[in-house]
Amino acid sequence: MTAGMAVFAVSCTAKETGARALHKDTQLERFLAEVERRALRIAEIAVRDRDEALDLVQDAMIKLVRSYSGRNSEEWAPLFYRILQNGVRDWHRRQAVRNRVMVWFQKAKTDDDDYDVVASAPDPIGRSPDEVLQNSEAMQAMEIAVHDLPRRQQEAFMLRTFEGLDVAGTAVAMGCSEGSVKTHYSRAIHALRDKLGEHWQ
Amino acid sequence: MKKTDEKMAEQAKEAFDRSVDGLDAATLSRLNRGRQAALAEAAHSHQRWLQWMPATGVAAAVLLLVVTLQGPGDLDVISAPGTDLEILLGEESIEMLEELEFYSWLDSQELEGDGDLG
């Protein structure tokens, strides 16, 4: 009898675990579907290459699912962006090494040279050509200005403004204190205002 | 934060959101594939875990059953392998191993003898 009860208890636990896992998977899918497009654009502004940005976002999704799917869903956004920002930082490190090697072989060419912001701009939906051009120009100016910010300021600005994370969430994503987030964000805003003054009034 | 700064941040957010809304179909498709690949990995890891759940449960139940039925009185059965070990490590066994060729020859002689008899 005892053994029978033990088997029953284990099978019940297995069913509950399976149901919880399915529920988590649904939540995860919803979260990733919500966050993936903004994450792609944030990564794209940081690395200025859509293909690379797509790879970075996919890696971040896999790592989140693999390591943090068991966490509360409220924690996913900061954790996801922390993984993504780490990926972006690693990408820049690899690029720096690659560029040094390319310079050594007299083939110095940065990816920025190949990147045409207008050509890579998203396809317009239901807007007149004038609107598209204005938006595209404004976005191009903003992308360049944000890309040129120091790395930490860029992260703080994009996470706070584009993704809408609060100060605490941004601190988790950046792996620093809330005070540092406020400082980086404030400096980013001032730098952007100085650069974009003529485009953004 | 100054009002002008807030306004600039709002404008930047609006431009960013428009660029997100305008992502082309090919890019959205690639994002979708990436998401599905990530989720498939999660489902796979859940399945791996769930696959072992029934087996672990049955093993635990069987162990529980054995312990319950046997009770502490039968535990001296466990000492049986110890006796075998003593025999294996005994002097006689080593002697037999040392003279294995002799015993093999003796065995073949006996077989031949049996053949002669038959």
Give a written overview of the molecule.
- The complex is a heterodimer of chains A (201) and B (118).
- Chain A has 201 residues and is mostly helical.
- Chain A has one domain (34-196): Winged helix-like DNA-binding domain superfamily/Winged helix DNA-binding domain (Arc Repressor Mutant, subunit A, Orthogonal Bundle).
- Helices cover 82% and strands 0% of the residues of chain A.
- Chain A has helices at 2-47, 50-68, 73-104, 111-114, 117-120, 129-148, 151-162, 167-174, 178-196.
- The longest helix of chain A is centred in the first third of the chain and has 46 residues, at 2-47.
- Chain A is globular and about 75 Å long.
- The termini of chain A are far apart.
- The model of chain A has no long low-confidence stretch (mean pLDDT 83).
- Chain B contains five helices and no strands.
- The N and C termini of chain B lie far apart (114 Å).
- Chain B folds into two domains: 1-70; 75-118, no CATH class.
- The mean pLDDT of chain B is 74.
- By secondary structure, chain B is mostly helical.
- Chain B has helices at 3-21, 25-70, 80-88, 91-98, 100-117.
- Chains A and B meet through helix 1, helix 2, helix 6 and helix 9 of A and helix 1 and helix 2 of B.
- Decide which structural class fits the backbone of chain B: mainly alpha
- Low-pLDDT runs of 5+ residues of chain B are none
Overall strand count of chain A: 0
CATH architecture annotation of chain A:
Orthogonal Bundle
The dominant shape of chain A is: globular
Please identify the top-level CATH class of chain A: Mainly Alpha
Number of helical segments of chain B? 5
- Whole-number radius of gyration of chain A? 22 Å
* Helical percentage of chain B: over 70%
Tally the helices of chain A. 9
